Amino acid sequence: MFFTLRNHPEWQKECGINIAPSDPLIFGLENERKQAENRLERCCSGCDIGETCLKLRKRTEDKMVEGRMEPRTRIKVNFSLRDLDNWQQIAKNYQNDPIGVAKKFEILVKSRDPDWKDIDVILDALTETEKQLVIKTACTQVNAQIIAGAMAGRVEDHIPLTAPDWDYNDAGDYASLKRYQNWIKYGLENAIPKAVNWSVLFEIRQGPKEKKHSF
């Protein structure tokens, strides 16, 4: 027990053991303990001069390289013949149900993310008159937005009539493509005037007490 207490002067103080502070053995033990606590493990040249440990810095850099995110690359999914055949069947009903066809186009955009050339093929499934109406309707709305100051640029910047040089993996070009997809969807929804339900109108009859001018 004595040897244990001898190695721990702080325990001696807590236990009230009066060991002369001038004892060189105690001073030596305390100095060795303090030096051991303050001593840094010097495993490389960086540690020797007080800088960051080179081994630790290399491990940190390796972890940063491993955890670094690579830029995301978009993979374009091409249309199959089956996709085009299905769309052609849908497009045949465009004049009767423009909203329904526009919703199918929206689903096609979400599943295939078509570029300008793909959309041109999609619009070719319509009649030439229907295709021009869709594009004209979209252009008219874009022009109105530009005049109102809500959009900048020219109409052809937003709805190009020829294939633009848009990079599928460029953030700015891809944003232009997404806006173009939305404008084509708008054109599909609004190009065909909504049909008047004449059957409902014919059901409205003049009451026996109603005057002609008020009816």
Automatic annotation (TrEMBL):
Coiled coil, from the record: none
Classification via Gene3D superfamilies: Human Immunodeficiency Virus Type 1 Capsid Protein
GO annotation terms (biological process): virion assembly
Span of domain Core shell protein Gag P30: 83-215
Alphabetized InterPro entries for the sequence: Gag_P30, Retrov_capsid_N, Retroviral_Gag-Pol_poly
Pfam families named in the record: Gag_p30
Protein name, as recorded: Core shell protein Gag P30 domain-containing protein
Organism, scientific name: Melopsittacus undulatus (Budgerigar)
Upper classification of the organism: Eukaryota, Metazoa, Chordata, Craniata, Vertebrata
